[in-house]
Amino acid sequence: MLGPVILAASRSDRMRRLVSAAPVTKPVVDRFIPGETVDQIVPIIRDLTDQGLELTMDVVGEDITTPEQAEAARDAYLELIDRLKPLDLGTRAEMSVKLSMFGQALDGGHELALKNVRPVVEAAAEIGTTVTLDAEDHTTLDSMFAIHEELRKDFPQTGCVIQAYLFRTEADARRLAENGSRVRLVKGAYKEPAEVAYQQRHEIDKAYVRILRTLMEGEGYPMIGSHDPRLISIAQELARTAGRKLDEYEFQMLYGIRGDEHLRLAAEGHRMRVYTAYGTDWYGYFMRRLAEKPANLRFFARSMVSKG
To answer: How far is Cα 255 from Cα 17, in angstroms, rounded to an integer?
Structure first.
């Protein structure tokens, strides 16, 4: 399987330099990351929302080694929120954040991440929208869930992400569904050991369906993070069985992947949210997109051959 190899490469400085220097890289990266600055991304936001789509915005960047870098990440999100305000989109444009960007891995990282992310959540609420806490590797999740619980005391619409390939996730899903949380369910995109995560695709898919049923039957708001046509169809059936209306759950897909499906689901009346990343520190995000799906890797390989 190439996925684990690519994920390992995502942490390699040598591979980062090699991939970044390749002439073909930028046009391929542009498929997944449509801009590096707020000025570049605002027209994308307008275009997608004009097409009836919703967005969750991610300022990419994960290699935070100082408190100053964590504060800069916070400020980047605050700048984004400031630019969203005159667009008056409300929840049609929310934010996704990785707590690693806010200093979670530094000394005193739990408190630092909470301190830095709270102003972002507050600012988002002021313009009528919200924030979702992305899941990272399994060692960070207890901290993420604790921060999520703390933020929900004042901002109950704060969402979080759970990953179907982790053994713990079925229990996490039951707790979050009972609490009425907004929850994005994804398969998972980090290299996790067999002691904590399913390794085979069919096992992950079965876990995904079990967890999604729990979310649909619960009190929360399920967000289906998948491009898999079979899982999308299953999600629609589970929603019907649970008696959910079209505005009581949503689909989420990545910018640059299955754009026609985004529009189809929106045209059918579904809430369809596009996960849209931007920024200069794109390498880790890009490599995980390649690792998640063989078609993404084939796309990159074909581009290298055609441009080389």
So the answer is: 24
Backbone φ/ψ region at 108: left (φ over 0), alpha (ψ -120 to 50), beta: left
pTM: 0.87
Query: Can you spell out the DSSP letters for 131-144?
Result: EEEPP-SGGGHHHH
* Sequence-distant (≥ 6) Cβ neighbours of residue 256 within 8 angstroms: 31, 32, 34
**Residue 14: band (very low, low, confident or very high) from pLDDT cuts 50, 70, 90:** low
pLDDT tens-digit readout, 148-186: 999 999 999 999 999 999 999 999 999 999 999 999 999
Is residue 134 part of the annotated active site? The answer reads: yes
Q: Single out the catalytic residue among 134, 213, 273, 288.
A: 134
Is 273 assigned a catalytic role? Answer: no
The residue from 92, 184, 213, 288 that is catalytic is 184
Could you give the CA distance from residue 98 to residue 62 in angstroms, rounded to a whole number?
8
- Report pLDDT for 305: 44
